[in-house]
Design goal:
- The structure holds two protein chains of two kinds.
- Chain A is mainly β.
- In chain A, 0% of the residues lie in helices and 51% in strands.
- In chain A, the strands form two sheets. In chain A, strands 2, 4, 5, 6, 9, 10 and 11 form a seven-stranded mixed beta sheet that branches. Chain A has a four-stranded antiparallel beta sheet with strand order 1-3-8-7, with no helix packed on it.
- Chain A is globular and about 35 Å long.
- The model of chain A has no long low-confidence stretch (mean pLDDT 91).
- In chain B, 0% of the residues lie in helices and 60% in strands.
- Chain B has no helices and eleven strands.
- In chain B, strands 2, 4, 5, 9, 10 and 11 form a six-stranded mixed beta sheet that branches. Chain B has a five-stranded antiparallel beta sheet with strand order 1-3-8-7-6, with no helix packed on it.
- The model of chain B has no long low-confidence stretch (mean pLDDT 90).
- The chains are: A mainly beta, B mainly beta.
- At the A-B interface, strand 4, strand 5 and strand 10 of A face strand 4, strand 5, strand 9 and strand 10 of B.
Chain lengths: 114, 115
């Protein structure tokens, strides 16, 4: 069981470039989400998905797109990178059953936009 | 707007001390409160609390929830240098459409335990 995996671990982009952060889980979790973590800001929800084919916006969705074509994968796309998107990005997954939704986090991607 | 506030923002103690970390919240349709430990990498799960007054315990760590006063505390007794980390509180609620749940995180408490 690999849990939640993310690639790449580190990335440097120039302003205006696009890229996709990959996230995959092998626990058959229905619920997946993307967070960004900035100093002093805690974790903020970008987008989430409650199952294949269903996505929705979180607290800070602007500048990011997601899709969920399979249960396992939940990629995050930056369409035109901006310095304000410099952050650490975490993908997480959980069961979506009743009250139980402990989230399992991936190792994170540290993104720098210059 | 959902809000989770943790205090203190940072804390420096010596090994052997006992610490109490606080988390207060305002969340629509509260479902559960979770504590995570983060040591320069991904957060790792500590506790999930759903009912008031029932203490969850794991070794030297314990936590309790007060749903009437909308807060939780995380206690760490006999602290060790390995307890140094950021402790995150997150509260789960149901979004307005009722079809999904999401976590709102506090900004964390940075705990430093000195030898």
């Amino acid at each position: 069981n690999a849990g939640v995996t993310q690639t790449p671990k580190f990335q440097v982009l120039k302003t205006g470039q696009s890229m996709t952060l990959q996230c995959a889980q092998d626990m058959n979790h229905e619920y997946m989400s993307w967070y960004r973590q900035d100093p002093g800001m805690g974790l903020r929800l970008i987008h989430y998905s409650v199952g294949a084919g269903i996505t929705d916006q979180g607290e800070v969705p602007n500048g990011y797109n997601v899709s969920r074509s399979t249960t396992e994968d939940f990629p995050l796309r930056l369409l035109s990178a901006a310095p304000s998107q410099t952050s650490v990005y975490f993908c997480a997954s959980s069961y979506s059953i009743g009250l139980v939704y402990e989230q399992y986090f991936g190792p994170g991607t540290r993104l720098t936009v210059t | 707007e959902d809000k989770v506030v943790q205090s203190p923002l940072s804390l420096v103690v010596h090994e052997g001390d006992t610490v109490t970390l606080n988390c207060s919240y305002e969340v629509t349709n509260f479902r559960s409160l979770l504590w995570y430990k983060q040591e320069k990498k991904a957060p790792t799960f500590l506790f999930m609390l759903t009912s008031s007054g029932i203490e969850k315990k794991s070794g030297r760590l314990s936590s309790i929830l007060d749903k009437k006063e909308l807060f939780s505390i995380l206690n760490i007794t006999a602290t060790q240098t390995g307890d140094s980390a950021v402790y995150l509180c997150a509260v789960g609620g149901v979004i307005s459409s009722g079809s999904a749940r999401q976590l709102t995180f506090g900004s964390g408490t940075q705990l430093t335990v000195l030898p």
